[in-house]
Design goal:
The protein has about 280 residues and is α/β, with parallel strands linked by helices. The chain contains 11 helices and 12 strands. The protein has helices at about 10-25, 30-35, 55-65, 95-125, 145-155, 170-180, 180-190, 205-210, 225-235, 255, 270, and strands spanning about 40-50, 50-55, 70-75, 80-85, 90-95, 135, 170, 200, 220, 240-245, 265, 280. Strand 8 (about 200), helix 8 and strand 9 form a beta-alpha-beta unit. Helix 1 (about 10-25) crosses helix 3. It comes from Oleomonas cavernae. Belongs to the NadC/ModD family. One of its GO terms (molecular function) is nicotinate-nucleotide diphosphorylase (carboxylating) activity. Pathway: Cofactor biosynthesis; NAD(+) biosynthesis; nicotinate D-ribonucleotide from quinolinate: step 1/1.
Amino acid sequence: MIDVTPPPYLIYEGLLKTALAEDLGLAGDLTSEVTVPATARARTQINVRQDGRIAGLPMALDTFRLVSPEIKVEVRHGDGSDVAAGTVVAVVEGPARAVLTGERVALNILQRLSGIATVTRMAAAAAAPHGARVACTRKTTPGLRAIEKYAVRVGGGVNHRFGLDDGILVKDNHIAAAGGLDAVLDRLKGHVGHMVKVQVEVDSLEQLAVLLKRPVDAVLLDNMGPAKLREAVAMVAGRMITEASGGIRPEMVADYAASGVDILSLGWLTHSAPSLDLGLDFQFD
């Protein structure tokens, strides 16, 4: 089952207000105020223009509500729905000026998150037959991390760390700064609480052999091709969680997952996923 429980409103309320303030500037929506009568009402539909998976509808619709509490929404196909081009996912109606003012911010969010969910769905489906899961990374758009990671979950993926305080992930630069892998592992002793997970990145089988002498919770196998990954997974032999990362794109997932690795992390999901094409169309009697 995919997770379509959105983050609490308080987590993304500030994002919506910031985005609206950026669009409104100091003078407000000049075009709508000049061209649309103050009493005009609108009934609009959010239409899908290409096949995909919907994510971000709660945030998009809350954007309209922030502009005007008079705006009413009707959800036809909620987050997690796989929809075809031409599908109406929601109906938005209320003061025409307010609907027009909120249109771009709402669609930007919905298109962005639906695009992430759509490519994650493809990647997760390719990994599933091999028993592997697909995870996102911290390579998110600044300010959008909570909702972009939500979109990954809607797509059937899982979340890696949300931030630097979410767990210990020792990467190559930490190892270099600390003076080597053994020095890092020595420093970890006695400094980590029992609730904190520890993962260490290695980029060679030689480093992995060192790590396996003092196992941690998980190993990040960085920039290894499928063949080397298969060797690494065999070396680990189930003693810790194995994760592969480094330049993996959705179309490569099946080959990497066949190595037997537990998790594939793809920064691509949040830094390169194309937005899903959606539009807001007015309805006339």
